[in-house]
Structure formats: C-alpha cells, structure tokens
Design brief:
Elements (H helix, E strand, L loop, with lengths): L1 H17 L6 E11 L3 H13 L9 E11 L6 E14 L6 E16 L2 E16 L4 E20 L4 E14 L1 E3 L5 E3 L6 E2 L2 E11 L2
Antiparallel strand pairs: 1-2, 1-11, 2-3, 3-4, 4-5, 5-6, 6-7, 7-10, 7-11, 8-9
C-alpha cells in the first residue's frame, strides 16, 4: 500500500510543478488489453505443471488502466503528459490463482496530427508475481518501462473526447525478491517481462 501512495504522490507533485505554466489541463482515463511476454514466469509455470502432471495456462495477456494528465502547453509541438499506470494479469487454471501486476508512474509527451495523436512516456514500475502453489509468494521488484501509442480521437464536445489506440509497451524487471529478500532471476532474460502490443479506449476531459 505504501508504494502505491508513493507512486501517486510523485505523479501529483509533477502535475503541481507544471500547472502554473499551462493554458489548459486535460484529464484522461484509459483501459486496454494487451499481450505480455512473461517468458521466464511462464517457464516456471510450465515446470510446475509438468512436475505435478497438471494443465496450467500461462500468462499471455493483461488488462491495463491509466489515469493521467496532459498539460495543454506546446514545447516544439509536444504537450507534456504524466500518468499513473496499472497492469493486471492472471491465470486461473490449475488449483489456485497465478497473478502478475505492475504499478508505476510515467512522464512523456503527446504530438497531435489532426485527429491523430502520437504519444510516448518513460516510467518507473513496481511489479509483483504470486504463484503460492509453486512457493512464489508475492515476489516484487522495480523496473523501467516505456509506453507508446497511436490514437484516433473522436471529439464529442469542446471539452470531452473519446480515443481508440494501438499501444506498444516495453516493461521488464530483471530480478524480483520475496519478503525475506531471496532473489529470483532468469539467466536468459528478465524474470518479469510484460512487454507487448495492445489496444485501448480512453476518455478525455479538459478541465479548463
């Protein structure tokens, strides 16, 4: 809980620092569905399934949620953006839940070309992985993530718009640890890898 408060505290501080310089403040919320790699984690799931002669699905997709602000001021045509992200993936197959999540805060920019927007941001994320039956009890770790999107905007009113986007995400965590500090890593790549392609829907509201 403390790390979630810290993440959104950082987000709020970034917004406050820029507010005096903006012409308008836009708030947005977006939901999406994307693929995720999770190569190392899926290998661990498969090893457990083979050892126990079970059929357990791996983690191949995730839901995403973002809450953000776009500062309506142009810096060489780019409008600054700050966002809080949540990524949620799970597998209910087998005899218990398998869950992977990532929460983070990111800053970037958005460039408009007519009704099309191109955006990208860089952020820091805290990921967790839980598979209690295989003795992975809430592993956690920190990593860097990059999000990119191409979005088409439907203007509903002067202040309200909807958007449909194609997204690209790179988010990896090289090493995770349990509550006792025991490290978990994979020699072939990052232990936690939620990089992938997806689609999303966003709602925008210009506050002033």
């Amino acid at each position: 809980m403390q790390h979630r408060i810290a993440i959104f505290g950082i987000l709020f501080a970034i917004i406050l620092a820029w507010v005096p310089y903006v012409e308008a403040l836009e708030f947005n919320v977006a939901v999406g569905l994307s693929t995720v790699r999770m190569t190392a984690i899926n290998q661990q799931i498969q090893l457990y399934a083979d050892d126990h002669h079970e059929s357990i699905a791996g983690i191949h997709s995730a839901w995403s949620l973002s809450l953000g602000t776009t500062l309506r001021m142009s810096i060489l045509g780019v409008e600054p953006c700050v966002s809080g992200y949540g990524l949620f993936a799970s597998s209910g197959s087998g005899g218990g839940p398998i869950q992977a999540t990532a929460l983070g805060v990111a800053a970037g920019g958005r460039y408009a070309i007519g009704l099309w927007d191109v955006s990208a941001d860089l952020g820091i994320y805290r990921g967790t992985f839980s598979f209690p039956r295989a003795a992975y009890d809430v592993l956690s770790g920190w990593g860097i993530g990059i999000n990119g999107a191409i979005e088409y905007t439907f203007r509903l009113t002067a202040r309200i718009a909807l958007g449909v986007s194609l997204t690209l995400r790179w988010l990896t965590i090289e090493q995770m640890s349990d509550q006792f500090g025991t490290p978990y890593l994979d020699r072939g790549g990052p232990f936690f890898d939620s990089s992938g392609l997806g689609v999303g829907i966003s709602f925008r509201w210009i506050a002033w």
